[in-house]
Amino acid sequence: MPIQAVEPRRLYRQIADQLRQLIDAGEFAVGDRLPTERELADQLGISRPTVREALIALEVEGRIRIRVGSGIYVTEPPRAAATATDTDEGPFELLRAREFIEGAIAAEAALHVQPADIELLDDVLGRMEDTSHPTKVTIALDREFHTTVAGILGNAVLVRFIGELFDQRMNPYFELLSSYFENRDSWRAAAAEHRAVRDAIAARDAERAKTAMQEHLRLSQLRFSRNFGERSAAREVAE
Fold it and tell me: Cis omega before residue 134 (within 30°)?
């Protein structure tokens, strides 16, 4: 048998496994409320975003139900539990990677931008401002903005890479996270952040463009980091 490299499981998956085992062992019965996100982070000695990714993974599997403003409850496991491959990165891991990579791309774009590139960015931003969120259309526009910034460098590999990075958010984990925290207000905030990136690139200010892009993706992480104990405007609209 050929020897295969062993890859360490991502931390949030290890936490999800531990919580699942506790539920299966009867430590938490169906209907029981789990400790809060903050309590779990303190008990496990890890960050709250990691706990959040683990909880989202368990909700995707149907093992828990997160009720914003109420708590995290154990549910009856489905007959065929949903699972995800170990190659699925967590939402926060993805956003941190994008913050680093796209910040560098925005800085370089500011040094190579042409008037035609600004026209393309303005076209995307104009269509963004005419829509509400969350919809498939707005997500597509968000993707188009980021790939258009990459396109300023005239490198098809970078455009494809940024598109593929963005597309990794099209998974059950990110969709659940978005359902809790993305709403019309968050979309307006993101649109304004996109505008700041555009303005910095148009001014040919590389450092400002880098900062604006990194700030946008950092704020995206913060929007997804609100306490589950806070009532979500997105849920209020849906209820």
Answer: yes
